């Protein structure tokens, strides 16, 4: 019974990215996955698709079933954080790329930590809005985007959200308006995680660069999947 329930939940998972809400492309059947539950081992079949915005393959059923992070991963991360001095730290930020499981993990293990959306991933919705407004006109897109990126980094995210809402109000109904509406919702969802100004004043990182650098040292070089936007550039 529990297996059928888990499979039904996997089958009902819509083909959208659990991180940004973008419809997935190239959706195909994925391999089965077996996981341990309190009722024993359960195996489900899942679909996966490619998120063009995140530039990653996603498995919606994993997000629906809470399989994007496991208890073992939680324990390992918690132990490593304590080994590196988290228990003695006066405060700590958690920087994520927007994946829901990261915020769940932080709520579970480090509820007092400040959650912060990686700055590059915070800029991605802005770029998506710009493409919806200006299409392939790179000159107009750049002129519109750069001031908003600076505001997002050095001022309040509320100012940026207001400008996005104004842009949305001026659009007729259609694909462009739908795209902007989706990104505005994304900004509202992560508004509390976008205070880069406070992070910079506190001398804290606003991006996940240090984590990625550590991964490269431990695992070897990782090929980049997209352009890197440096703060202030």
Structure description:
By secondary structure, the protein is of the alpha+beta class. The protein contains ten helices and seven strands. β6, α4 (100-109) and β7 form a beta-alpha-beta unit. The N and C termini lie far apart (55 Å). Mean pLDDT is 80; it is low at 220-233.
List keywords for this structure.
alpha+beta, 2 domains, two-stranded antiparallel ribbon, 10 helices, disordered C terminus
Within the largest sheet, what's the order of strands?
Answer: 1-4-5
Report the radius of gyration as a whole number of Å: 19 Å
Number of helices, counting only DSSP H or I runs of 4 residues or more: 10
Number of strands: 7
Structural class: alpha+beta
Task: Please tell me what the overall shape is.
Answer: flat
Biggest sheet overview: 3 strands, antiparallel
Number of domains: 2
Question: What's the SSE pattern?
Answer: HEEEEEHHEHEHHHHHH
Mean pLDDT: 80
Helicity range of the residues?
A: 40-55%
Question: TL;DR of this structure?
Answer:
This protein is α+β, with helices and mostly antiparallel strands. 50% of the residues lie in helices and 13% in strands.
Topology overview:
Elements: H1 2-11, E1 25-29, E2 33-37, E3 40-44, E4 47-51, E5 56-58, H2 60-64, H3 71-83, E6 93-96, H4 100-109, E7 114-117, H5 119-134, H6 138-154, H7 157-169, H8 175-189, H9 196-201, H10 209-219
